[in-house]
């Protein structure tokens, strides 16, 4: 009887251990999906892993000799950002437990900080301005006539007859003469509103605009396939090389130790861009701090 109970206890502990260890396998599958930019699968796998183990860690052994940071909140934020859900992305990237792990990794913090800045800009642009509170004018009280005052507000004089509503005394030979008519003051002229200046239309080629939109949407594979040689304009070709370099750099970060080829391709694009425009610098509001640093360091 005791032996049977011991066997049941061991089987129960083994099942619990296996279930707890499964979160690492699920998390590893989510990492592979992130490298493939399959954001729907990333969201599913990271939610499953988070449900089994909610505490992030700077380094865990996933399987064999594979070690990585365990931070499903970061990848949930990344997936939400790539799918256009900025509110959910900010919530996951600023998770109190995950934030120290993200900040401790240059790769994770570079992507997260750039995404946070972009999301805050988007949310600020879509937040409507508060409506002004209408001012209700205070009504002026009507004075109450005192004793000895007629309905016209004229004080009755003792020993004389009352005045009529026209202001002329009855029973006397001296009518009350009206005072001088005040000269009307002309109203100040209304200012003529200045028409707004017309907004200049964008001169960026359509293919370049599509590439920038794809980069902001997280479609890095699409941007990495862009051909800058299709642009005859030198400035457009510079920006095409720049956005392709940024996409390849992000791919190298997501690929980890296997991203050396993508990093080398990004550095090649940066050198070509610098040759076209030696004095230009990437826009820090559009590109991540890590990419701006890479651009400055690449010779």
Instruction: Report strand %.
Output: under 5%
Order of helices and strands: HHEEHHHHHHHHH
What is the tally of helical segments? 11
Order of adjacent strands in the largest pleated sheet:
1-2
| Content-based structural category | mainly alpha
CATH architecture of the domain at 12-126: Alpha Horseshoe
Uncertain stretches of 5 or more adjacent residues:
1-19, 151-171, 195-202
Give the overall form. Answer: flat
Which whole number gives the mean pLDDT?
Answer: 78
The radius of gyration is: 38 Å
Q: Considering the protein shown, what is the CATH homologous superfamily of the domain at 12-126?
A: Tetratricopeptide repeat domain
User: Main β-sheet: number of strands, strand sense, barrel status?
Assistant: 2 strands, antiparallel
Task: Report on this structure.
The chain has 299 residues and is mainly alpha-helical. Among the domains are: 115 residues, Serine Threonine Protein Phosphatase 5, Tetratricopeptide repeat, CATH 1.25.40; 92 residues. Helix content is 53%, strand content 4%. The protein contains 11 helices and 2 strands; from the N terminus they run ααββααααααααα. The protein has a two-stranded antiparallel ribbon. A hairpin with a 2-residue loop joins β1 and β2. The longest helix is centred in the N-terminal third of the chain and has 34 residues. The two termini are 76 Å apart. 26% of the residues are buried. The N terminus is likely disordered.
